[in-house]
């Protein structure tokens, strides 16, 4: 008898250990029947018991995951059919090094043998310190202090708290609001929801409970060409910049900061806009004494073709949030980094010098140890000193990986441009987006993509991929073929 497993990126069989007693007769119904029963059991047990993201409690799951290796998932559907698929989502953009990565597995095992958790109040440990050193060394130069958080949403909460406390420390306690972009998404906790798009976002039901923030229109759309140039309408951009300056000037007295997803708005529509918009927001922040907060949770660690997306604009934020890929997708961990100027202002405040947040699992050593190993894989460096000015001038692994992803996605998604149901195709770094003229038939297209060998999670009018960095050229082509084939099958010609 065999059960499926994945090793070395390929499906192989694994013999079940023999037992001294003969197995019951019911075991001899064949492998397909056993797999079907197993899959049905998991999916049935899940349905009505577990909530899934942004879904009713009785929605259930579409597939059961029975294994993962590299860039591939082994899925079982309700009929018992196995599907080996390329994970185009990288587990919601986090699993950049692939599943069962030996270096990350080893880091986890090594830390578990020491201790997996200890409170961070009054105590410290090497993994947290080393991770903070690594982050400071690779982040924009002015960011010198680190707050370790549980998740991306929590890092945004901490960033907003810090901005409010900073303004109070500077003698402006009335500055209680934030300036954000329409189309933005920053998380599902309450303060984070308040700076998400209030109309087209997913949190309008909670509007009465969220603080009322101020929103700028989106900058004009941009295309990042294969030659590295940014293509957009200069007239539209100038009009947007002028309007943004006017809105900020009129409300500066009540604003604490500006929060933005640099260059790429993710959950708000996979929208790409010119880096020059970030430079304009930096100028506005400087002119009016506001803090610029860069939400790099989705864009950080190379996804857009720069280590951090603000670097497309050569801008340094006052505060930056990172998460998702920080641990290579293994455990939930995020960080908020801030400038020395901001930290020192808070430290000098009378009676309010503490940053008022402290999660139970803050600085979890297991997550920190894995994050260090993940940064090693991204940068090709070891000790924190290797990141310094004397480091050899060589491309980091993430640079060559993301450049290869961009080339592969441009090629594999190009045929979608000829499909009549496709409105636009855009690629930025390790992000590939196909936009339709109509809303996606999500369930049908997901199933069709799985049949073609790809796991994707479409939304609105978008079918997109943000695959693991270590995808092969063949796997990138498989993703492109699957997306084009599924769109043709479900949405017709």
TrEMBL record:
One of its GO terms (molecular function) is adenosylmethionine-8-amino-7-oxononanoate transaminase activity. This is Adenosylmethionine-8-amino-7-oxononanoate aminotransferase. Pathway: Cofactor biosynthesis; biotin biosynthesis; 7,8-diaminononanoate from 8-amino-7-oxononanoate (SAM route): step 1/1. InterPro entries: Aminotrans_3, Aminotrans_3_PPA_site, BioA, PyrdxlP-dep_Trfase, PyrdxlP-dep_Trfase_major, PyrdxlP-dep_Trfase_small. It is found in: Cytoplasm. PANTHER family: ADENOSYLMETHIONINE-8-AMINO-7-OXONONANOATE AMINOTRANSFERASE. The record marks 54 as: Participates in the substrate recognition with KAPA and in a stacking interaction with the adenine ring of SAM. Pyridoxal 5'-phosphate binds at residues 152-153, 295, 359-360. Its EC number is 2.6.1.62. Its main location: cytoplasm. Residues 9-18 have a biased composition (Basic residues). Keywords: Aminotransferase, Biotin biosynthesis, Cytoplasm, Pyridoxal phosphate, S-adenosyl-L-methionine, Transferase. Homodimer. HAMAP family: BioA (MF_00834). SUPFAM superfamilies: PLP-dependent transferases. The lineage of its organism: Bacteria, Bacillati, Actinomycetota, Actinomycetes, Micrococcales. It catalyses: (8S)-8-amino-7-oxononanoate + S-adenosyl-L-methionine = S-adenosyl-4-methylsulfanyl-2-oxobutanoate + (7R,8S)-7,8-diammoniononanoate.
